[in-house]
Specification:
The complex is a heterodimer of chains A (214) and B (179).
Chain A lengths: L11 E5 L6 H8 L11 E2 L2 E2 L10 E4 L11 H11 L4 H9 L2 H4 L15 H12 L6 E5 L7 H16 L4 E5 L3 H7 L2 E6 L2 E7 L4 H9 L2
Parallel strand pairs in A: 1-6, 1-7, 4-5, 5-6
Antiparallel strand pairs in A: 2-3, 7-8
Chain B lengths: L1 H17 L10 H5 L5 H22 L8 H26 L21 H24 L2 H17 L1 H15 L5
Helix pairs in contact in B: 1-3, 1-4, 1-5, 3-4, 3-7, 4-5, 4-6, 4-7, 5-6
Chain lengths: 214, 179
Amino acid sequence: MSQNIEIPKGQSFGLVGNNGAGKTTLFNILLDLIRPTTGLITNNNIVVSQSEDWKNFTGSFIDESFLIGYLTAEEYFQFIGDLRGMNKADVQKFLGQFSDFFNDEIIGKKKYLRDLSKGNQKKAGIVAALMGNPEVVILDEPFANLDPTTQIRLKQIIKNLTENKEVTVLVSSHDLTHVTEVCERIVVLDKGTVVKDIQKSEETLKELELYFSV
Amino acid sequence: MYVLVGIFSTGTFLINFGQFIPAWDSSYYNMLMSQNFKYERYLKSKFTIMTISVALLFVLGIPYVYFGWDILAVHFAAMIYNIGVNSHVILYGGTFNRKKINLDEKAAFNFQGTGAVQWLIGLPLMLLPMGIFALINWLVNFEIATIILGALGFVGIALHKKFMVAITKKVHYKQICYD
């Protein structure tokens, strides 16, 4: 069966589905970490498995393997910032915007990333994915493990990102409320196939809840 | 036997470090692969570290000259061979190593990532130059054998760009992933 999903620039795109639906797999294929047996993905007209040019405008955070455990948060941000063409001052300025989001738990703690809690690791990873003004941001289950306050702040960050329709954000989540709140379009996956593709409206949340209820 | 010592003394770091590329970065490999740089640059950085280490170890090994100029000459040829040939062979060989290395674990008696491949890769690295050297030493003489060994290294350095492109293609096609 052939299926085609096209995500226009500037859309906030949500992916939901039960475990094993293929959300993370889809994101991994998007980042060329898994090669598909059939089909292909183009990111801004670049076939991801053939060229590496998509790497300079794509920021992503999938799981802990995107963090370097033996670095402190500052060192890690410095490293990523360096790869993204930011100097020390740029990184400082960039991190300044997120002081609320970090809630004083990440910067200046002299702690290695591996010693941070799951939630704090996730915060560091999400912020690193946003470094260097990416045009495409891919976040796999960004809301999991976060405390309620941070979840609300993260929703605001994602909304701000897509406000100007410049940045495309792809989010997967198990939390239907969050996903309907931040995304304008929601795709439901089941065992690797698209079962629903909805533009957000008033009834979206109900529709999704109905679909997932047993 | 001079060659074995030469390859070893200038290439200890090369062999130890090189055989675990890219396994050193296995715990955050996915992130590196989706970051803003090309795979060739990643391999290139590893190659640079190995080249510097080989040159440095040669300099540290200069006191061997106490045992005769011929030893220093062989060491120099071995250094060139290590940079030109062995570094590329080991970068290629490392791509067969798919075992994870977790750098957060203790260092003593840590055998992470070692396997049969590590022993097999050692053969071409050391036996090949030894064989070539012994053969020419037996057929012609010591000086020519040393020069040939060094010349092979220079050929490798001259073809560096081509090797890197080939290895990048090979690795990128194989697409190592650690799960």
